[in-house]
Amino acid sequence: MADAADTNDAANLVGEPAGPRAAWWKAALKEAGERGSATVESEHLLLGIASHSKGKAASALERHGLDYASIDAALAAERQQSLAAAGLPAITFPGASPKVHRGRPNAGASLKDAMARLRRAHRDRRGRVTEVEVVQSILGAELGRVPRLLTLAHVDREALLAELATL
Length: 167
Hints:
167 residues, 2% strand, mainly alpha
């Protein structure tokens, strides 16, 4: 569970970043809004990194079969699987997409948890947080959409984390 400081850090991350990370943070905001989400979750950030980064972490994701299209497809499959598990019919959007969320999305629970893991891991160091560390914190989740999408995409999470640890 995230404490108040972690929650504030995650909420600040949903603001306007600067520097080279701005592209994938803004892409995460856009992904959340276009998917009709009132919150930015860790999967939106993963999509943002996959679509707007040329860094080491994005390259590692690609080597493990996680480019933007495969993450998007795995998220769609995860959604349908979760609905089926709850006994709900599959949702399709023929010729239309989900309603676009207007306004700035808030930090969601999975993003707050990922940022709490990042903060704990980065606590004893100075300097900027790297893209690799952000991806490690996202993949550090044991429960939620990201671990389920990794399973559906047939990604060996431990192998991916081990590679990220060497970067």
